[in-house]
Design a protein that fits this description.
350 residues; alpha/beta; TIM Barrel; 7-stranded parallel sheet; two-stranded antiparallel sheet; 9 strands; binds coproporphyrinogen I
Length: 350
Amino acid sequence: MSPSATTPRLIRACRKETLDRPPVWLMRQAGRYMPEYRAIREKVGFLELCKSPDLAAEVSLQPYHAFGMDGVIMFSDILIPPEAMGMEVVFGDGGPSFPNPIQCAADVDRLIIPDPVEKTGFVMDVLRKLRSELASSPDTALIGFAGSPWTLATYMIEGGGSRHFAKIKGMMYEAPDVLHRLLGKLAKTVTLYLNAQIEAGAQVVQLFDTWGGILSEEEYRRFILPYHQQIISNLSHDQAPVILYVNNSRGLLPLMAEAGPDVISVDPLTSISNARDIVGSRFALQGNLDSTALFCPPEVLKPMVQSLLREGGNQGYIFNLGHGILPPTPVENVRLLVNLVKESALAHTP
Ligand code: 1CP
């Protein structure tokens, strides 16, 4: 058997091998749009779910069992490491919140850089369980992830989700040294955390910078890029390729390329072909169907998926959404999407 025959399709796409069809998975593919997930959440709180390896592994596998994606992303949340650093985090119905947000240098100094195995061993347990569950499906990749320092800092400073990001921007303008100190601690934490995930069995890792797109290019170069570079250059790429996702990345794609990931995950605002022209052929690309396309009737959704399949091609391309799947998404459309990508192999067969 050739080495690539035992390497999951998703990893082969990250490495830019030519395939009979692209792999498909969906950001936030485990979650509230699935009745199986809601049934578990009726009985268990969100954090408890993240910290119960058997349940978290079960939830991670729900979309895989239902639709057969080529990747299984571990069920967890980007806000687990800030909790391990010493912050209280609460997941309520309105989303996550931090009752005691970071306000000054002393707050940053109090944070620890946690040993990922000691403080977040439950995450590594989820990954180990998933790897053993997937042992009989060697073509399916196990995906680990973390939030980027900037995105984590927005929650830790704003105290939760935000519309205007006035507090973190205030710190960026008035006390940039304090913000840099926080971002530096987060970068060390995330590097250790992702390497521990790779050690525990993650075959590819994605760095989520959901709020990277609220900065100008110049600000991004100062407050985001160095930390992306620091994290990405310290990960074991040979063992696990790295996907970098920035939402609202229009204008930021060249800076994403400078961070040196293996894969650039493109949001819905830039076409895959334009992104390819901008970043060049060195990177595999992932994306970028608009999540709201999944609300359309099948006769509208189908040509959108097919057109993206043609644009992405079968080398260095991973089919995904441009951002996370939305909770009211109809399950049948997710099934249709995954099937269309899988059937595209037939179209490529000579
Ligand atoms: O009520 C519930 O059941 C909780 C909803 C929920 C879920 C299902 C939250 C709270 N987090 C998650 C899981 C999750 N979060 C995953 C694993 C699931 C999968 O991918 O299949 C991942 C990768 C995340 C990552 C995450 N959490 C991001 C980055 C990705 C993105 O979509 O941009 C962000 C920004 C968060 C914060 C967060 N956690 C939860 C919510 C509702 C939010 C967003 C808050 C906001 O809008 O600011």
